[in-house]
Amino acid sequence: MAIQVNLDRVLLDRKMSLTELADRVGITLANLSILKTGKARAVRFSTLDALCRELDCQPADILEYVDEDS
């Protein structure tokens, strides 16, 4: 997939654990882990909004398009 998830990097920059973020956002640790590992097939805008709010970042900080042909 050409979309890369950089959630682990943003969490590291914010010195926040995945468990703490899950509690703050109100989604399960399992679902957040699926997103973090890049295995999610979709992300709701409400989830992305909550992640950006709690991490004080932009969607582009979390999601990145990577051309697979290069």
UniProtKB/TrEMBL annotation:
Name the Pfam families on file: HTH_26
Domain (HTH cro/C1-type) spans 7-62
Q: Which InterPro entries match?
A: Cro/C1-type_HTH (IPR001387), Lambda_DNA-bd_dom_sf (IPR010982)
Chain segments annotated as transmembrane: none
Name of the protein this chain belongs to: Transcriptional regulator
